[in-house]
Amino acid sequence: MPSQFRVFMASPSASPLLGEMAIIIAAWPKDEFSYRGECFVMVERAPATLHQTKLSFNAASVPEGIIDDKLGFVQDAALRAGKGEIARLLKARFDLTSDWNVFAKQVEYQEVDRNHLAHLWILGRWTEELKQVFSTSECEELIEWLRTVKQCQPISITTTTLKCAGQ
After folding, report:
1. Handedness of CA 119, 120, 123, 124 (dihedral sign)
2. Spatial CA neighbour of 107 closest among 9, 5, 7
3. What is the gyration radius of the CA atoms in the chain, in angstroms?
4. What's the whole-model pTM score?
5. How many Cα atoms occupy the beta-carbon half-sphere of 124 within 13 Å?
6. Assign residue 43 a region: left if phi > 0, alpha if psi is -120 to 50, beta otherwise?
7. What DSSP state is assigned to residue 46?
């Protein structure tokens, strides 16, 4: 059974104080009864912009028929961990600012194509975070995909303020 990784983006208007937020989840079988998973949360504006959670599940202790899709179960647990981390970050921001706007909109998560992260890489966003995910992940599929993404040259963007006549 192969490993699987998925990417989720938080609704863009959910927290302007934290900026764009993404969750990368991965799960893979270690052996016949053991599963591993991990979750990476990337937050645009936070004291630490990358958070990692690791999961380990021994399915041998679970009677047959209780959890049919064990890999999916670990993925769901990783996604819950990521959502919990974002909730913790929102609470920490509120504790710091006492700004109720942190909770003004409910955070909604949408699964996106993994290429969305490649696009962000090419745009020069979260490049250091994705390098760290590459270095610390244990999911072979995610590592190989990021190896390919890292070969992409980020776009060069130059902004110039121009003076117009009469200014």
Report:
1. negative
2. 9
3. 19
4. 0.87
5. 5
6. beta
7. S
- Distance separating alpha carbons of residues 159 and 97, to the nearest angstrom: 32
* Residue 25 burial (10 A CB sphere; 0-12, 13-18, 19+): buried
Measured between alpha carbons, how far is 51 from 148 in angstroms, rounded to an integer?
22
- Encode pLDDT of 115-166 as tens digits: 998 999 999 988 999 999 999 999 999 999 999 999 999 898 899 998 888 7
DSSP conformation class of 151 = T
| % of the chain with per-residue pLDDT over 70 | 92
Residue with tokens 């599929």: 141
d(C-alpha 126, C-alpha 121), whole Å: 6
Residue spans of alpha helices (H) in the chain: 70-97, 115-122, 127-136, 140-149
**CA atoms of 131 and 148, how far apart (whole Å):** 12
